Amino acid sequence: MSTFQQQLLQAANEHLREFYRQLIAPIASHLEGAAHLIIAPHGFLHYLPFHALFDGERYLGDRFSISYTPSASVYYLCSTKNAPLSERALVLGVPDPSAPHILDEVEAVSSVLSNAEVFTGAEATLEVLREKGAQCRLVHIATHGSFRQDNPMFSSISLGNSQLSLFDLYQLDLPAELVTLSGCGTGLNVVVGGDELLGLVRGLLYAGAQGVLVTLWDVNDQSTAEFMKLFYEHLKTNPTRPRRCNMPRPRSARSTPTHTIGRRLCWWESTRRGVRQTKASVPPSSTRHCILVGQVCNLRRVGNPPGAG
Hints:
Elements: H1 5-23, E1 34-40, H2 60-63, E2 65-68, H3 72-79, E3 89-93, H4 102-112, E4 116-120, H5 126-133, E5 138-142, E6 145-146, E7 156-158, E8 163-165, H6 166-169, E9 178-182, E10 189-192, E11 196-199, H7 200-206, E12 212-215, H8 221-237, H9 241-245, H10 249-254, H11 260-269, E13 270-273, E14 288-293
Parallel strand pairs: 1-2, 1-14, 3-4, 3-5, 5-9, 9-12
Antiparallel strand pairs: 6-7, 7-8, 10-11, 12-13
């Protein structure tokens, strides 16, 4: 990787620059003065990390804090929910041979979230998530994720005693301000008719989560542990929620030259969806929010869950 580092970075930047030219440059004048972009993609653009788009000098995520939402209607629903008043946090970690640094991540995250309850291995069960998660403001799950392209309803993450699938998420009450699924491909979805998304993100939003931090592809668990510690440190010191998202990429990307590519990818794949702003965290009047909307779809917690028949 280090041998071809510059060539890989240049090739990636060329692709990202072309995406910027096609998608952002035509509306760049409308973004002047904005501090925060809320992006509702359409079709295959759901798979694109907009925050990594490159204008030739800077990445889009260096200019704006960026949030994603499956649709404008989902953003509205998330923005009207109330988070638990508790400052409690729940951290679950399920290591396996393919991800040996998960326990390092749990230790790093819990060192920042001093009020967190921590459960690892066989103790990190669905029952713990169901019982503890409903009263927590922050829920962090570090584990192995599995995305099922053929049947996204069976996409899942590993817990201590079972797999947590999209079906299971529909049965949970998880009204946290932020749920983090730190595992490979936890933010992947299948785009079906009407631009509807089927994947774990949908299940978490249906369960009541206001915001979700997920990954778009496979990640290195050691880089992820570093990233997550930086993220929660930044979260504690930034009262305005969108600014919490606009964080450690430059610092982590430059920390060790031989890991530049890997850590940039760690930044690119980490994406927040369904972000809510409380009254206390509304940015100053001098900042603007721009909402880039694709096609609107509905997600309502009534009747049968989407995709469940």
